Amino acid sequence: MRFRVLDLETTGFEPPAEVIELGIADLLGDERGMAIGPPRSWLYRPQHGIPPETKAVHHLTESDFGLLTFPCSPGQLRGSLIEPGVDMLVAHNRYGCY
Description:
Helices cover about 15% and strands about 35% of the residues. It is α+β, with helices and mostly antiparallel strands.
């Protein structure tokens, strides 16, 4: 079984909040146990800036995004998360814990 664990960093909770980082790692399990696949992450350039209160949570600033990063789209997220062989998505949520 292959679980895809994901974590998103955003510019906030309310529109026009944007996804600015996606991190994933796969957990691979069989009758012998579980193994963790290599972690991967992508940065997406925010179109509306990053509010100070969210910078304080994830410590990402506008200077962390190179000239070649692009805004995140639903298609990019879907393509990164849903691949053949992924049996289940597992999300991390820290809402309200800071």
